[in-house]
Fold this sequence. Notes:
Blueprint: H1 2-14, H2 18-55, H3 58-69, H4 76-116, H5 128-149, H6 156-159, H7 162-181, H8 186-195, H9 197-211, H10 222-226, H11 228-265, H12 267-275
Helix pairs in contact: 1-11, 2-4, 2-11, 4-5, 4-7, 4-11, 5-7, 7-9, 7-11, 9-11
Amino acid sequence: MSLLLDAFWRAVAYCLHPRVIVFSLLPLVLMVVLSFALGYFFWDSAVAYVMDSLQSLSLVQAFFGWLERIGMEGLRTVLAPLVVLIVATPVIVMCCLLLVAVFMTPAMVTLVGRRRFPEMEKKQGGSLLVSILWSLGSTLVALVVLVLSMPLWLIPPLVLILPPLIWGWLTYRVFAFDALAEHASADERRHILKEHRGTLLAMGIVSGYIGAAPSLLWASGALFIAMAPLLVPVAIWIYTLVFAFASLWFAHYALAVLHKMRADSGIEVLDAVWREPAASSDDVTDVLPASSGGEARPIGPPEPPKNPN
């Protein structure tokens, strides 16, 4: 627990580092450009398709009639855009997570390793290609589960539970792997992911719930639709910072666990010994094997004769 809390507060402090803030701007720019490009080309058609689909449902028609009777027919025009934004939110979240994993996490791990564990050996247990494939595979699984779980979102409590849990599992899968890819060997990584799976998953779920905070912007309804050009970049930046924090949290925790594991097994001590500069020839004292019946004696200049007196 001490390692977990220590890593948490260190991650919070590192989020204020100028380099971290600068790193968070690149995923932000890419996601804003992508979001507005998709919105420019597909927003109207997506809203029209959702509206047509809603009007074909008798239950929705009854709901629209009830809104007209109570004088809130204006909400009818807001429902379709709101549905499009709610459906697009998981895609935005996953894209932000992948961009942070690709562009920020390696730099975050390097920053943490250089500042906290400069002597730690880098065993390169996971290449960039393996990391990308791992992230894409995990994202695909999370996306399938997310789509299959969408009907359950109509049950009020589950809409507040299922998406953060899925995002948390994806955060744990992606950032735990990337945090250990450079410094740990493949065996060390598998051992840490197995022994600390519960803690790492809990970290991912907490990050998932923090990452769900920008979704509250969608609850503003018509106000959000009117201010979407301003609020969408803000929401994306918050997503980026949340995942940057999660990346730092996993890096601090995973590297601290790896350092402790090596220290307990004596690996880091041995590495430090082998990295020490070689002693000079004057300081080296080899030992000859002992002859039969005699004792081992050091190699070196002959000792001066002792004074018989």
